[in-house]
Amino acid sequence: MARSSSEPQGKVKKWLIRGLKIGLLGFLSAAVAVAVAVVIAYQSLPDYESLKSSPNGQMIRVHAADGSVIVSLGPSFGRWLSYGQIPTVMVDAMISTEDKRYYLHPGVDPIGMARAAWVAMERRGSGRRWQGASTITQQVTRNIFLNNSYSWGRKVREMVLALALERKFSKRQILELYLNKVYFGGGAYGIDAASRKFFGHPATSLDLPESAIIAGLVKAPSSYSPTADADAAIGRAGVVLELMEENGKISAAERAEAHLQDVKMAPEPPQNSVRYFTDWALPQLDTLVDEPNEPLEVYTTIDLGMQKAATAAIQANVPKGTQGALVSLDRDGAVRAMVGGLDYVSSNYNRATTATRQPGSSWKIFVYMAALEAGYTPDTGVTDSAVDINGWKPRNSNGRFSGDIDIRTAFAYSVNTVAAKLGVEVGFPTVADMARRFGITTPINTHPSMVLGTSDVRLIDMTRAFASIARKGVAVTPYGITKVTTADGRILYEHQDDTSRVLVAPWVAAGMTDLMQTAVSTGTGRTAQIDRPVAGKTGTTSSNKDGWFLGFSSGVTTGVWMGRDDAHAVGVLQGGRAPAHAFADYMKVAVANRPVEQFETQVTLPEWQLEPDEEAYYGQPDSGTDGDMMVDENGLPIERGQQQQGEDRQQSEDEGTDAAPNPADRPQPPRLDQQWIDNVLGRNRQPQQQR
Question: Fewer Cβ atoms within 10 Å of its own Cβ: the N or the C terminal residue of the chain?
């Protein structure tokens, strides 16, 4: 009997030994396979400098004139920090939160894997993911070499690469990679980008509460982002502080002194109207700098106070159903405000820089500058009489001719016949050349009607032209970027003001400024007065499709346009009304802190010299006594009935007067000739003979 019982025990023992041998052999085979895989992975790993390179994408932070960040674009990788530059509290917070046995394991944590396996058993069938097995080294391999897919194959490759990574690089090097590459939410990769985004300063100056907040983001960046849910971020940071205390990284006293509620978060940059400016300025980076990888700090000219005032002025004054745009330049061309429409979110189309519209009487500055350059002066005599240029017969808004007047009176009245005669006298190509000289980049026709504004223009180009006049004939080029640096402060580009291009002689610009003062002092631009010297010009196109006001004061030049995107008529839209109102509302804020600057020419016309409200954009032609041909704004024939309706509308919209006064019946203004301008400018020269 004893023998029979010992036989089964011997068989069991035999099978146990055989099982152990098979298990040991399997383990050794697996170990050899893992070792071979690790060796192969080790040999295939790139060097450390290659691992440090940033992934695709470049962060661009855009600053306003006061240095504040107005928008951040692209994924942010911040500045690369070496291990020695990273604050110790940041390293301790991350290790305590993500991998408390980081310095003890070889890249894979067996204890953590066992815990994760137990959790997986408990959650079996629940559909929830197993967690807690990945070490910091494994997260580095996943971020650099793999993806976030949850599969056994990916997990095995992750562990093999982690073991190889720990064989090739030190613990400090792996931590450096991790802290500079891990995603913290909000487009920020790495602790420096996260620190700059959430706290507004580099990661080198992170303190304990800030480090706890950043360390808490890795688990769920979108859920714990301070910009999305500040309370959730602070709550998660409290958990991080507890873990740091448990792991002996901080004392109980240090934890108590870490006041998370007192952490100051960086404000979120504005995202509405300022985007019209950034959309225009940032594409210029391609021509200014050649740095495709490093994060860039772009410093711009935009003044947030002026931008806010510009947006408010446009929104408050545009007629119902219309759009508006505004561009404001400093004396050197720096764009201080740019509004491309009522609301960027609903329409990102930039009407300030992209839209092309007819400029109305504001175009006449090029006609009159060409005349001034040719020898005319504000006091030069001209004759307001019928004009016939190859069948084109422009008329004046009051339907009458004033006879002998001077240039200043003709400009103040916006007399169409005089503008046409000046165009013939100096040559239509000369007027076009003057517009080109002053920065008009759109096509310009040389038909006779061009003197009244038949060529489409951009608001920013017209504003540039007025700014060049304000600068006494020196060319002004609008710019929005003052400086571009890398994240560590290395300067890649810095704007230099160019004053070498002189477009017209100073006395021509002074004469033009004198003429434009009259429009604001007593003409349709009176609404643009702001209790300091202003020079400007209104513009109203046919059927009131477009309204313009452009002018300058105290070193700031501003252009305003209003109209419908579909170019349909807007009955109440005139340059001297809503656009001039918006100009005044904005300029009162824009120049409030600037000293009052007097123009070199200070002439105010008598009140009776009133520029008519209706500027008769191409004029309706004067048919004379025996002809009834009329032309539209394009110079094409129209029926008499249409023209009569236009005249009736114009008369009804005049500012309480049946017709503009006839300047021939009024006293002539003081004599303002070339000698007078020379005296104002302090120049000694022989008076030029007037035409």
Answer: N
pLDDT of residue 463: 98
CA dihedral (394, 396, 400, 406) in degrees, to 10, reads: -100
Element (H, E) at 315: helix 304-317
Helix (H) or strand (E) holding 557: strand 556-563
413: phi > 0 → left, psi -120 to 50 → alpha, else beta; which?
Answer: alpha
Chain centre distance of CA 46: 40
More confident residue, 627 or 177: 177
Helix locations, 551-659, DSSP H = 578-590, 640-652
Count of other CB atoms within 10 angstroms of residue 225: 21
Name the 3-class secondary structure at 536.
Answer: strand
**More confidently predicted of 470 and 155:** 470
Instruction: Report the alpha-carbon distance of residue 190 to residue 17 in Å, rounded.
Output: 53
Q: For the chain, what is the largest distance between any 2 Cα atoms, rounded to a whole number of angstroms? A: 149
User: How confident is the model at residue 509, as a pLDDT?
Assistant: 95
Which is it for strands 323-329 and 556-563: parallel, antiparallel or unpaired?
Answer: antiparallel
Taking each helix axis from N to C end, the angle separating 88-98 and 136-144, rounded to the nearest 10 degrees, works out to 90
- Token pair of 587 as six digits: 């300029």
With 80 as the cut, is the pLDDT of residue 621 above it? no
What residues does 178 pair with on adjacent strands? none
**DSSP-assigned letter for residue 686:** P
* Total residue count of the chain as it appears in this document: 691
Q: How far is residue 371's CA from residue 508's CA, in Å, rounded to a whole number?
A: 9
Sign of CA dihedral 13, 17, 23, 27: positive
Residues 141-183 pLDDT 10s: 887 776 655 566 667 777 778 788 888 888 898 899 889 888 8
To which residue do tokens 């301790």 refer?
A: 92
Task: Give pLDDT, residue 652.
Answer: 34
DSSP assignment letter at 457 = B
The 8-class DSSP code of residue 288 comes to H
Ranges of beta strands (E only) in 216-310 are 296-300
Distances, alpha carbon 176 to alpha carbons 56, 85, 94, 508, in Å = 19, 10, 12, 64
Other C-beta atoms lying within 10 Å of the C-beta of residue 27: 10
Question: How far is C-alpha 45 from the chain's CA centre?
Answer: 42
Sorted by sequence, the CB contacts under 8 Å of residue 40 that are 6+ apart come out as: none
Look-up of token digits 């947030």:
304
Pick from 321, 311, 304: nearest CA to 273? 311
Which range scores top for mean pLDDT: 21-35, 41-55, 546-560?
A: 546-560
Contact 348, 376 (CB under 8 A): no
Parallel, antiparallel, or unpaired for β 335-339 and 323-329? antiparallel
- Answer yes or no: is pLDDT of 611 > 70: no
d(CA 455, CA 588): 31
Q: H/E element holding 88?
A: helix 88-98
Q: Phi/psi at 304 (nearest 5 deg)?
A: -65, -35
Give the model's pLDDT for residue 411.
84
Amino acid at 104: L
